[in-house]
Amino acid sequence: MSLDRTFARIVTHHRLALGLAVVAMLIAALLTIRFRVHFASDVLDLLPQQFEAVKAFKVFDREFSQARELTIGLLDETGQVDLDAFSEHFSEKLREEPWIARVMDRSPLESPGGLEAARALALPLLLNLDTPDFDQALHAVAPDEIAARLKKLHGELEAGSPKAEFQLDFDPLGLVAPALKPLGSSFSIEQTRPLASPDGTLRIVLAKTKQTDLGAKTCQEIMDKVEDFKKRVLADWSGPAPKILVTGRTPYVGELSRTMGSDVISTVVGSVVLVTAVFLLGFRRIRPLFSIMVVLALCCVIAVALGALVFRELNMITIGLCSILIGLGVDFGMMLYAVYERERETGGDHEAAIAAAIRSQGKGVFFGSLTTAAAFLCFLRSQSTGFEQLGVLIAFGILCAGLFMATVFFGFIGGKFRVKGADWLWTGGAHFVRFVHRSPRAFFLCFAALLCGCAVFAFLPIGRVQFDANPRSLEPKDSRAGIALRTIQSKMPIAAEPVIVLLRSANAEQFHDGWAKLQASWTNLVAEKKIRSAASPAALAISPARLSANAARLQSIDFAASRTALTNTITAEGLSADAFKPAFATLDSLKAIAHGDRQRARLGARRCPRDSTWWFRARSLLFARSKSRRPLTSHQITRSPPSRKRSSFGKRSSPRQVPVLISGLELHPAGPRAVVRRASSPSSPSSWWSSMSFSCFSFIVALSRFSFSCLASRFPSLRS
Amino acid sequence: MRTALALCFLLLTLSLRAADLTAPETQALLKNLQEHRAKYPSLSADFVEERTSHLLNKPISSEGNIAFQVPNKFRREVIGKSPSITVSNGQKLWIYYPNFKEAELYTLGQKAFFDDSIAALTAGLNFQRVDQYYSVKAAHEDHGYRLFLTPRGSGLRRMVKELTVWVDDEYKIDRSETILPKGDRIVTIYKNQRPTPLSPGTFDFTPPADAHISQPLGK
């Protein structure tokens, strides 16, 4: 029995078995989707993954603490709002939210508890000083030095010196200031008010959320809480209020995932409506239309399930396959049903009509699905995760569509058939074919002239096609997170997209050495005005070797004598012993470290409360160690003047022996352009990748479709 | 019976001594103070100050004189065994310690928190923009008024917890009491106030050539 008759027989006489098979497939697919698929809405998945710049940006985006940070802009361009007071009100209320870990609305030293936290950080940083600086700092604990310093500061305090009062209170021994000195060169302070715009119309508040994961659902939940908080905080405020802008990874993912979800629904609904309209226009039948839609839905579900088996994670953009699949798959159904209908109109029974449809169109459907699948599989060449997934899913979907339209579809339409009296489409088609057959030359010339006209118009210098390779163009135009980011960047030049440097290192010593070299290199570049500023965690990168060497040097110091000198001076000068407890504690800690207690020299969470704003400063090092699986990876943010080309940044900024990855995005003043570059080949922008990939992709699609077309034309002879 | 009468008399006396002003009355008082300062834009006075610090077991007492000119120029000289000179011309603030031959230079406009602090502290002297920095409550007392100022912003609250200023019926400042966040307290009593014009040179300062100059806020 031929294949078409076999298919027709199964569909006609084994409908129950066919239905059960479909249900089984559907259940298996749904279970696979439920338990295996994890949807991501990361725009970075759409960028070429082979570039180190993209890899680095992904690591930075996902594994560092700012992935959970909200950047909040409080904007008032009317001049009516007391922005300082509102910022304070906003931050206080935000700190009370259970989903917020910490808030930064001013520099760490100005924040509540900031000075105490700085003093706690000082001890490990003191032991991290290089030998000359450490020796010089240690002079301060000599008994004579302690007595002289306290006596002098007391005298200045009596004369009314605020500086002396601060030093007596914060750093009576004179050890904290030299220990914290490297922080000054590591962090960039360009403004008198670092979290406010120069024109005073914008205040920035940074907040770290307690979100457990970075998935789209969690981001949406956090953003729901943000929106609710905004309403409450504005309700609690009397008087004019500023606009509250929120941006960051969480707002972007929350918003994009929601937008993608609604986009998918709207495009699928649009496709269904259009296809329905066309089908009804041509066939004026409901049941086959419903059957086609059911089959296409089945194809979509199975394609996603198969995709989930191939990929660990699917980008939301791949769900765009549904509307593409409806557009492509409906052709197969209509081709087969047109023949089926014609057979039934001429008196054929259900089984014979199915066999005739498969015999007539089956080969076309099979090779059509095969060539289309092959064409979409060419997306595997794109090296963009999102497009790879989209290509594979559509390939699976279209192959399923080819198979199911020739089988399951006929099972759904059933054996009942209503004969139509007249078919204007069929009649019109017959007239058109007769016309073409009667005057083929005239027909060819007319259409050739029309197509030539179109081609000429395409090459005429009318209008302009802009090929935009900026990844930012992938975000929706009216994205609130995007608008917030652009507003903040326009108000605060310092907030412009920085170049991000990730350092790869095998151990803490390499980590320290790498950052020290990079920081030295960047300090020179800033001095030469080749880059505007640089901020790194160099000062917080503890060198185990230095720590051991400096701890050994402490053994030669008589801390008991220092303690006695401190006690005697406090008594002699009439100072309050209670106020100098931290100084005694510092001497005791140094003594303990000298005797081998290295725990006191560790730079970790114990030294700084979890809600301290110092974490925002130190996040590049401290958080990376506590959260990332790559414990010694960190980041550097720096900025170059807009007038200078970024292409040579990698060469100029990084010493050769330091293994770094450089990444970042920037919106140029002249307009958006991508500057995602490969560290080893800085002249490889994403625009080059996109144009080359497009050419390559087009060539492969043409080649594959041509090959399968040749195969299709040779198929009968091969069979014979 | 005698005790009850004494208590009633005491309460009556207290109520007469300190009657809280309503908000409009407070605003009217502030307006009068601002007008008085506009009428007499410069003044000089002698002062006696006692400072209680959490760093010291005993309070520090000092005395000296102060000259002030709206909006933000002032010169404050402390005499005695720990002398100092503090001079601000509105752009630069010098503090010089003759005993140590050391001078501190603070440039206004470098750090917002410092500028805000100076503006807020001078607001307690000239009563201009006092509403911007403080919540003000006032009370009428014997021979004058008491103004109780609470900082509005958290930045200023970290430096000053409360500021109370007593003025007499002629709107001259009698006394001020500043409570600092760690419990420190500064009580200043002003005497011999002279609303006389001051020469521009009063607010200029050049440290001696042998003085060591530091800039705590950076250059």
Automatic annotation (TrEMBL), chain A:
Classification via Gene3D superfamilies: Multidrug efflux transporter AcrB transmembrane domain (1.20.1640.10)
Pfam families for this protein: MMPL (PF03176)
Species the sequence originates in: Chthoniobacter flavus Ellin428
Membrane transport protein MMPL domain: residues covered: 193-408
Keywords from the UniProt entry: Cell membrane, Membrane, Transmembrane, Transmembrane helix
Protein name per its UniProtKB record: Exporter of the RND superfamily protein-like protein
Topological type in the membrane: Multi-pass membrane protein
Subcellular location: Cell membrane
GO cellular component terms, A-Z: plasma membrane
Keyword Membrane found: yes
Transmembrane segments: 264-283, 290-311, 317-340, 365-384, 390-413, 442-462
Positions of region (Disordered): 630-655
Keyword Cell membrane: yes
Automatic annotation (TrEMBL), chain B:
Keyword Transferase: no
Organism domain of life: Bacteria
Signal peptide: 1-18
Keywords: Lipoprotein, Signal
Renumbered residue ranges of the record's region Disordered: 198-219
Gene3D superfamilies in the record: Lipoprotein localisation LolA/LolB/LppX (2.50.20.10)
Matches recorded under Pfam families: LolA (PF03548)
InterPro entries given in the database record: LolA/LolB/LppX (IPR029046), OM_lipoprot_carrier_LolA-like (IPR004564)
Protein's UniProt keywords contain Lipoprotein: yes
Listed PANTHER family: OUTER-MEMBRANE LIPOPROTEIN CARRIER PROTEIN
Protein name in the entry: Outer membrane lipoprotein carrier protein LolA
